[in-house]
Amino acid sequence: MKIRLVLIAVVMTVLTAWCTSPALADSIQLECSTCTAGSVTQMSGGPVQFSFVDVANQTITGNAFIAILVPTGGAAPTFTGGSLAETASFTSGNLGSLLGQNFTGYNLSNFQSASAQGLGITPSGFTVYEYSLGTGVTLGPSSTGITGLTAAVSQGSVIVGFIDPPSTTYQTPLSGSITVPEPSTLGLLVLGLVGLLGVSMFRVRKEAGII
Q1: What pLDDT, in 10s, does the model give residues 33-75?
Q2: Helices 2-19 and 185-207 meet at what angle, rounded to 10?
Q3: Under 8 Å between Cβ of 192 and 198
Q4: Is the entire prediction scored with pTM above 0.90?
Q5: How far, in Å, CA of 71 to CA of 155, rounded?
Q6: d(CA 171, CA 28)
Q7: DSSP string over 5-36
Q8: For position 73, what pLDDT does the model report?
Q9: Which residues have a Cβ under 8 Å from the Cβ of 144 and sit 6 or more positions away?
Q10: Distances (CA, A) of 7 to 43, 199, 200
Q11: What is the mean pLDDT of residues 7-16?
């Protein structure tokens, strides 16, 4: 009986995480209505549709960019909503230095962890595709920003965003990034848990003489 209750709780928890996008408190972030909560980032199992916004009561104007990090050897992404600015190999250090931007919070290990959350692997490096979303772009206040962004990317890819006002650079936090896992990972997990629950209920019914 205890095992069955535990399995029910686990299934409900996984289904809730699978069907609900995370509510993030960070000001600059990627909003993705079809994403699920991952252990490190948001997760999307297919082509990603998202917005780049400032959800706080503030306004930031500057040059906006999206960086898509594809595990080394993966196919180039297809991105709608911006123009390709540069491509770079990312195998050490931090993303800000690689792209000549004023932020330091994105080390290679951060992205390796993000990629691993959906694939169970840690890429040795990434190819970074940086897209310009335009100059003089305004984000905020309160979920105002760039909408209608779409990306089709390889498994294990991670999407981040940043905006470049004159004095500093604002970046989406890692928890506001989007990772593309192996498409079947979450589904198989849920099906496995449901199967265990079914077996448990069958045994209980058999022991009770119901079947």
Answers
A1: 999 999 999 999 889 999 999 988 899 999 999 999 999 999 9
A2: 160
A3: no
A4: no
A5: 8
A6: 7
A7: HHHHHHHHHHHHHHH-------SEEEE-TT-E
A8: 95
A9: 53, 54, 138
A10: 24, 11, 9
A11: 40
User: What integer pLDDT is reported at residue 38 of this predicted model?
Assistant: 92
Cα-based distances in Å from 179 to 61, 100, 182: 26, 23, 10
Does pLDDT of 191 surpass 80? no
Reduced to 3 states (helix: H, G, I; strand: E, B; else coil), residue 69 is: strand
CB 6 within 8 A of CB 185: no
Which whole-number Å values give the CA distances from 198 to 143, 150, 171, in the listed order?
43, 39, 45
Q: In this structure, what token pair is assigned to residue 33? A: 């209505």
User: How far apart, in whole angstroms, are the C-alpha atoms of residue 67 and residue 171?
Assistant: 11
Instruction: Find, among 63, 72, 76, 56, the residue nearest to 161 by Cα.
Output: 63
Task: Give the phi and the psi of residue 185 in degrees, each rounded to 5.
Answer: -60, -55
DSSP symbol at 115: H
Tokens found for residue 198: 């079914």
Contacts of 167 (CB under 8 A, 6+ apart): none
Interatomic CA distance for residues 82 and 6, integer angstroms: 47
Instruction: Round to whole Å and give the CA distance between 176 and 27.
Output: 10
* Distance of alpha carbon 29 from alpha carbon 53, whole angstroms: 6
